[in-house]
From TrEMBL:
Region Disordered, residue ranges: 544-601, 613-700
PANTHER family for the chain: DEFECT AT LOW TEMPERATURE PROTEIN 1 (PTHR37576)
Pfam families per record: DUF3176
Gly residues composition-biased segments: 676-686
Protein name in UniProt: Uncharacterized protein
UniProt entry tagged with the keyword Transmembrane helix: yes
Swiss-Prot/TrEMBL keywords: Membrane, Transmembrane, Transmembrane helix
Residues passing through the membrane, by range: 35-57, 72-98, 135-153, 456-480
Originating species: Polyplosphaeria fusca
Ranges annotated as biased composition (Low complexity): 583-596
The keyword Membrane is annotated on this UniProt entry: yes
Length: 700
């Protein structure tokens, strides 16, 4: 509320008389600000809590589980928070502006309170005084808050690759036993048997079904043990020595791979023998190792790796860890002279391995008394020879390098792996053709996934900054209860506060919505020094008194003069017992359909309604139903405050007939008076003081 000093500025109703209450009472909304502020504050707190919930729930969670990524949600929440913060600041600035003018202030301070949130006016606003400085500093801090909230919230969440290992359920179609005839007959191998052998030798890719539970998800690999057709094996190594430089050792076998199928027992057995020089001393005495292995058909737990739909055996798994499920025999592996009889899995493996890997190398003399080897048509002795023996960084003695550089890597483990791989490929091929061979197994998925991680330091800073923004905006609302009505910085409210003449027809209404309901339908336009209001042109420049513009740009210099041939008549549309405005003025010759007016911007092209039937009354309120005693005559047109009778010869407006219950006394003249505004009248009216004597409340 205004203090005693500011109240003294109010004009008394009459000399020695008290104001009489009017039946028209202005509408007030004292609870609109707290309800609106509480709603905005609730939404802002909700945005802060939602930000915390998103960041906490996304911590250590995979990105694929979020249909809407946390960064998108955070961007939305921060944007909503900033919109709400702007609304709260707008309300706070309006409250500060009205509290300042209520307590008494200057126009400059009011201007800078309104524009304090503009960085261009920051320094002038700080210098303007207490209220303007407070608004400017808070607006500057809120600018920093707005710039920081988004980046801090985004920095609080990060997406990183996470190494993971987890168990998943998968399916595969694979056979536990290889049926007779898969590899062919006694006389020859068929296409599918040959394909399995070729795939093992050439390391061709295997594929499983391209279905959800068959495919390994994501970009990782699935490792598992699956029971499938294979071989049970066992090997026994023996060693012997040979003097490589002894002439009697020439033509001795130094490397060989042989296979043999034995049907002497009830269970057919395939034997494999590998022979190779495994080491050599300085005197060229070599150690010859012989591995004797036997194979029988069996169901084996194969270690496999699946990547998407590609399947392969894990060759890095030691053979010693291979788990045997069960042994089995097949009638096709029995001895038979029938060349068209389908062969079993053991005979198929024997045919493929023997024809592919059987090889032999013997010792021969080389150049300059050195020794070397001669291989048969097979390439395997050359592929398994150990070339590191003669490398420059080898620790082998020079005598061995010069005379007997012969040593081989063991082919035994590779041959066993080939046998298992051929059987596995055959089992997978058989299973892919039979849906009844579907198996379910548990695999270990290993790979990288995108996971969300929350930085709790940035989370705390972001929440603190958002809370600070709310506190700063709320500080602008201090003292809103003094106003006892809803306030805004609408031109309708501020213009009414400053006594704009065209807003006087709104009566005692002070809130923008109420003023808009009363006179919101009235048309206005402004250009340079002229104001067009409700069809009448006024000169508003400070260099001349208000006047109505004549046709062809001439004006009546002394007062408001009605244009030629137009007599002032009351508006036929009224509401709430008061005038809505002045009647329209046509400029120049009368036109029955398109009356016009002109000002410095040119002749108006707006078409003003000629009568009440043509006028758009959809925006005009219904006539006020409340009665007033001693009401003002509705037939008297309302004039701007600065109007006074003209002394020219043009037709003049009738004098204003004041209601008997309301009288506006002239303000006492202080300083230099304006023409037509009551200058030169005697001052010293009781209850008033000069404007220069106003002391601003809270000014610094």
């Amino acid at each position: 509320m205004a203090d005693s000093s500011s109240r003294s500025l109010l004009q008394p109703y009459s000399d020695g008389s008290t104001a009489k209450q009017s039946a028209w009472i202005s509408k007030k909304s004292p609870w609109k600000i707290p309800v609106l502020v509480l709603s905005i504050l609730t939404l802002q707190i909700g945005c802060i809590l939602a930000t915390v919930i998103v960041l906490l729930s996304s911590h250590k969670d995979k990105a694929s589980s979020w249909k809407i990524q946390p960064s998108v949600l955070l961007a939305f929440l921060c944007g909503l928070y900033l919109v709400l913060l702007g609304s709260l600041v707008s309300i706070g600035i309006a409250v500060t502006w009205w509290r300042s003018i209520t307590h008494g202030t200057t126009l400059r301070r009011l201007h800078h309170i309104h524009s304090g949130s503009n960085l261009l006016d920051l320094i002038p606003a700080i210098r303007a005084g207490h209220d303007a400085r407070r608004v400017a500093l808070i607006a500057f801090l809120l600018l920093l808050v707005k710039l920081a909230v988004g980046p801090l919230a985004q920095q609080a969440t990060q997406v990183k690759d996470q190494e993971l290992a987890k168990r998943i359920n998968m399916d595969i179609q694979i056979a536990g036993e290889i049926p007779d005839g898969y590899f062919g007959t006694q006389s020859s191998l068929n296409a599918q048997g040959t394909h399995a052998i070729q795939g093992a030798l050439l390391n061709q890719s295997l594929v499983t079904l391209d279905q959800p539970k068959y495919r390994c998800p994501g970009n990782g690999t699935c490792e598992a043990l699956v029971p499938a057709a294979g071989v049970n094996f066992g090997c026994t190594p023996t060693q012997d020595t040979i003097d490589l430089v002894d002439p009697e050792s020439i033509n001795s076998t130094v490397f060989s791979i042989t296979f043999e199928l034995n049907n002497d027992s009830d269970v057919p057995i395939m034997f494999m023998t590998t022979k190779y020089i495994s080491s050599i001393d300085e005197d060229c005495v070599a150690t010859v190792t012989t591995d004797s292995c036997n194979f029988i058909p069996a169901t084996v737990w194969h270690p496999i790796i699946i990547q998407e739909t590609t399947v392969s055996r894990d060759l890095q798994t030691p053979l010693s860890s291979i788990i045997i499920g069960k042994n089995y025999t097949s009638p096709g592996d029995a001895n038979s002279d029938d060349q068209s009889r389908p062969i079993g899995p053991l005979k198929g493996l024997y045919a493929g391995l023997d024809r592919t890997f059987a090889s032999k190398a013997v010792l021969v003399k080389g150049a300059q008394d050195s020794i070397t080897f001669r291989a048969d048509a097979s390439q395997w002795p050359l592929l398994y020879v150990d070339t590191t023996l003669t490398s420059s960084n080898s620790s082998t003695s020079q005598n061995v390098k010069d005379k007997c550089p012969l040593r081989w890597k063991s082919p035994t483990d590779d041959l066993i792996q080939y046998a298992l791989d051929i059987a596995f490929r055959a089992a997978l091929d058989v299973g892919g053709q039979n849906d009844n061979l579907k198996q379910n197994f548990t695999a270990v998925w290993r790979g990288k996934e995108l996971w969300h991680f929350t930085d709790f330091t940035f989370l705390g800073i972001a929440v603190g900054v958002m809370g600070l923004g709310v506190a700063l905006a709320m500080s602008l609302l201090w003292g809103w209860g003094e106003l006892k009505r809803h306030v805004t910085l609408s031109p309708l409210e501020t213009g009414k506060a400053f006594g704009a003449p065209i807003l006087l027809t709104a009566g005692p209404e002070r809130e923008a919505n109420s003023i808009n309901k009363e006179i919101g339908h009235e048309r206005v336009a402004h250009g340079d020094d002229e104001l067009v209001w409700n069809g009448t042109v006024y000169a508003t420049g400070m260099s001349q008194p208000p006047s109505i513009r004549r046709r062809y740009g001439s004006t009546s210099p002394q007062g408001l003069i009605v244009a030629d041939d137009i007599s002032p008549t009351p508006s036929r549309t009224s509401g709430r017992g008061h005038r809505r405005g002045m009647s329209s003025v046509s400029s120049g010759p009368k036109s029955p359909s398109t009356p016009s007016f002109e000002h410095t911007l040119g002749v108006s092209t707006m078409r003003w309604p000629d009568d009440e039937d043509e006028a758009d009354i959809s925006y005009r309120p219904a006539p006020h139903s409340r009665s007033r005693s001693n009401s003002i005559d509705d037939r008297i047109p309302m004039l701007p405050m600065g109007a006074r009778p003209s002394m020219s010869s043009s037709p003049q407006l009738p004098p204003i007939q004041h209601a008997p219950t309301i009288r506006i006394d002239p303000v006492s003249g202080v300083g230099r008076g304006r023409r037509g505004s009551g200058a030169g009248m005697p001052g010293g009216a009781s209850g008033k003081r000069p404007l220069s004597a106003i002391s601003e409340r809270g000014s610094l």
